[in-house]
Amino acid sequence: MDTEKLTVRKVLEIFSDLLDNTEEYEVVQTRKMGLVLISDSSRNYDRSNMMVEQINDAESLARELLYSEIAKTYNLIDHGQPDSYDCDEAVVLKVRELLKPRTDRLSLNVEEEFDAFFKDPCASLK
What we know:
It is a single chain. By secondary structure, the chain is α+β, with helices and mostly antiparallel strands. The protein has helices at 8-14, 16-20, 58-78, 89-103, 111-118, and strands at residues 25-30, 34-40, 50-54. The protein starts with 7 loop residues before the first helix and ends in an 8-residue tail after the last helix.
């Protein structure tokens, strides 16, 4: 894990390839509302399901982008199986391995994002 302070500029640098090569996300500096993250989760990126979130700090931006990349990577490996918490441990390890070059550069606890994605949301109710 990188010990350098996480800044928005550093997050944008770390995720630059993801942001440059996807139609799903755009980070925009506005004159009145500051920095915003625009995401489009519509199937064909036809802008029918756009959301805008204010970027309050570097850590929240990094967490949002990392969670999204975990989901994308998981879907590529496990071919879109709906329940990530029910996948094989080998799939989880593969996702971690593929994202390691990026997560090693983030000075935050990335385990929380992996746990949020791969843990059964109902486990605490059982």
